[in-house]
Amino acid sequence: MNRERVIELLSKVKNGEISVDEAAEHLRDLPFKDLDYAKIDHHRGIRVGYPEVIYSQGKDLEHLKGIVAHMLERDANILATRADERVYNAILEVTDNVVYHRLARICIVNPKEVEKVGKVAVVTGGTADVPVAEEAAVVCEAFGNNVERVYDVGVAGIHRLFNNLDRIRDANVVVAVAGMEGALASVVAGLVNVPVIAVPTSVGYGANFNGLSALLTMLNSCAAGIGVVNIDNGFGAGYLASQINKGFMGRGNR
């Protein structure tokens, strides 16, 4: 349950549309519902502005279906991240009202129209980084942000980046996704006047150490204005980018 739904519920009580007891029944499972194998955090949307998201990888499929079924009882718009085909098919056993973003590995269950504001630019070094970038982009869009995708503009052909600078500079925040040595974030941060969220990916040859080299490059960047998330953490980058973009919009920016 998010803040808007609580306000709507309280307004109905105030206007005599529902009784206090009926309202109390709606609020009964706040702040969380205990399913034994999961504690569903209904209060998260009120506390932080975004509802709980299901991390699918590693979950038992029966547990996953139970979580989705319970969240649907509250008419929730559900994001399930790190969702492979098995997860998608399991959710289909609960509801067919689901959109599967294969590259991003995200299922959006009970999708709802969301007004999109501002702009987040999601930029990748190479095409192999696109799945992580798509995770960030889809999360941003689901949370109500416009997204500009600028893919395959890494430093090996830096003229491609320069050719797309106007599109990148038009955003309120940039998500820079790169593997190999991870130099893209530093270059971008030196060219824009907005925050850059650096996302190292596990793309690269042996000495990349599954993304460690890119992570260390981004952490040690000499460019200011960079924040770094964990390796392959497109979700974390998209979540943070949404908060920054909406913060800009709240101050009357683009």
UniProtKB/TrEMBL annotation:
Gene3D superfamilies: 3.40.50.1970
Pfam families, per the entry: AIRC
One biological process term in Gene Ontology: 'de novo' IMP biosynthetic process
Residue ranges constituting the PurE domain according to the UniProt record: 118-250
SUPFAM superfamilies per the UniProt record, alphabetical: N5-CAIR mutase (phosphoribosylaminoimidazole carboxylase, PurE) (SSF52255)
Domain of life: Bacteria
Any GO MF annotation of the entry: hydrolase activity
Protein name, per record: PurE domain-containing protein
Organism: Fonticella tunisiensis
